[in-house]
Records
---
Amino acid sequence: MRIIIAGAYTIGTYLAKLLSRNNQDIVLMDESSENLEKFGSDFDLMMMQAPCTRLQALKEAGAEDADLFVAVTPDQNKNIVSCTLAKSLGTKKTVAKVDNYEYTTDTLVQTFDKLGIDSIIYPEMLAATDIINGLKMSWVRQRWDVHDGALVMLGIKLRETCEVLNQPLKDISGPDDPYHVVAIKRNGDTIIPGGNDELKLYDMVYIMTTRQYIPYVRKIVGKEHYVDVKNVMIMGGGRTAVRAVKTMPDYLDIKIIEASEDRCTKLNEMLDDDRALIIHGDGRDLALLQEEGIRNTQAFVAVTGNAETNILACLTAKRMGVRKTVAMVENMDYVNMAESLDIGTIINKKAIAASHIYQMMLDANVHNVRFLMNADADVAEFIPQEGAKITQKAVKDLKLPAGVTIGGLVRNGEGILVSGNTTIQAGDSVMVFCHNIYLKKIENLFNK
């Protein structure tokens, strides 16, 4: 598969590194030789210094027979134009990153489709969705709803109060239990577990269940004492914060602390429905936090442009009694550090955007792909075709690789947890968990 990525910036370089692990034919384009040099030479791909809006450069990059063209430069106009040009040359699928929320509305998406742009990515909206999911349940690090909650994936840090520690999964998460443990992060390693694996103290565990059994999962992992989020304090009033506030549930009481006075004025204009109280100040100022009621706040969200600031602010909030913290960490080098410091939910826009782009390179009918950022694993929603290999046998007879497990499926709108005796049907939405290296390989099971 030939993939052209325009823009050697955060999303482009992260995506290029991600795709290079699958031995794809990748071209990374950028006008700046400095950007390309920063990327390094340790990855199996071609680097090309050229503007992505020049027709001849696109031809030299191979756009005429490319499978996927991804435009993720900082200039949304260049992204739109280059995608249109690439499609006109013969590229099969195109993706453009934009910085304007209005471009994601249904009407404009249809217009872009006519121009040859198959997908529009607005990272701030994707990040805002993850922030809101992280706030819905204070005891969960990560939540992902499949088909409006027919299935729910929960990422949970296990503490001493967990009832199911040190027991084989076959005894606590069998075919008749209303949840499945689909991945475990432990001491830097990711385990796609089997029946003999056990949950240990301080594991980060990923559980698949259905909506009605969320209270049951909450009980067995010992999180019933966590208070639900009603008050949220946000540090940083950038675009991610604005998108999050505009889509947060009405029951949340929201305060935004922003260091720039000019930005505070703009926030008051943008959020003119009194959706949030705007406070001019430094979110690291302990006196200010106390004055604004940090000790009575259930959640603290740090989304400034500085990862160190966000991590430090969340640590401060935790010391002041806030149980739920969310930090935007754009520097991938800091993600593991934030996890080791017990920062709650970690948001990385480029990883989220890359997840959405990655699904477009898979041949099977894939609706969603998510990288479990704190774990070396992927989760994908596959829909098997009529006559697909995976529909021919019960799951226990499919001989799935050791690093692959099927967590659940949605059939006719109903979430169903998968056991060894389950037979998958064409048209089911099937949730597959696997180590990164397997995702491209197992898609063949879902094709004829």
Note: The first strand starts at residue 2 and ends at 6.
---
Amino acid sequence: RWRAAKEAETGEKDRRPFLATQCTELPKCEKYRLEIIREISKKVAQIQNAGLGEFRIRDLNDEINKLLREKRHWENQISSLGGPHYRRYGPKMFDAEGREVPGNRGYKYFGAAKNLPGVRELFEQETQYVPKKNYAELMKNIDAEYFGFQDDDDGILIPLEEKAEKEYREKWISEWKEKNGLEEMEE
């Protein structure tokens, strides 16, 4: 409120630029980032009220996601101007079971928006989580046979290879003799 009074006295209104890259002063970028964070927190508090109605809740959720995207742009601008890297040290997102959510950069749902029709089904699909196997579990059933080290133990492969080797050797020798004209000399 005191900021509004100060702006009214001086007649200047410091509006946030449309693009974060238009601002080249680090303190102003920090100020605009904090403004966005305040707006996000106000809208997150508003969206907790399930009695707002489906359309208002969807609009608020869209506005919050837009502000989060804008905040990310300001954080990128701050780091490019030599300021702190907020995204590197930011809080991690966790799902309902307490597991860290990988790749949490997409569209998010807040408050009452999580209970909207269509959104609930999205969260139910995500809960069907199949844990990935680690390296030891993957390698547990792999033995020498997997790499082909025991292929010749059954007695089938060696005779086939000997036959193919003999045919290739005879073909190669005849081609070499033709090339060097040695076949005529033998006769």
Note: Residues 1-134 form a domain with the Helix Hairpins fold (CATH 1.10.287.660).
---
Amino acid sequence: MANAATSAIRLHQRLPPFQLSRAYLQQTMLEDSFHYLLFSLIFLYVYPFIIIILPVVLFSVLHSTSYSLTLLDTLGQNSWWGARLMISVVEFQTRNILRLAAFGEIIIMPTSVLLVFLGKAGIMTPLVYYQFLVMRYSSRRNPYTRNMFYELRLVAENFANGAGTPPFVRNTLHTAIGFISRLASPVPPQQQQQQQQ
């Protein structure tokens, strides 16, 4: 609930004044804050799992460290050197934290399907979460989910094409890779160039 409230506030700050139009709705759906507002609403009534809150916690750590640095600068340059050291460690690991959050977003998809079969989530949870994952994949500001899908695909293909991989596993992996690739939303050319860099 706290993440939903925070995401709603951030979304309000990033958007122009409300207009009842298709363009405004499209602009809203492109914002990362909207994605995490949707994420929070999807899992509001789902049985709590640590993997579900992992991306939220990681993004909270990143946002709180940047705000904490602003507060410490207000207090003075030499104040709270221990806190500054912790903040610099988090800032140094920002890329890895974002990659881990993206990995968590991807792993939640099969987890949500499993939760449906265990009776701990509704049938709509994986369907709506798929839409969230499509939005994260095509995000303009955060390419980490798209990059993580690409890295996982490379790992799976390398494993499938290995000499010691049994034919059944190889065929299953290639089928899964093909299925997931067909589900991926098209990426604008500008984002594809950024991904290849």
Note: Residues 45-183 form one domain.
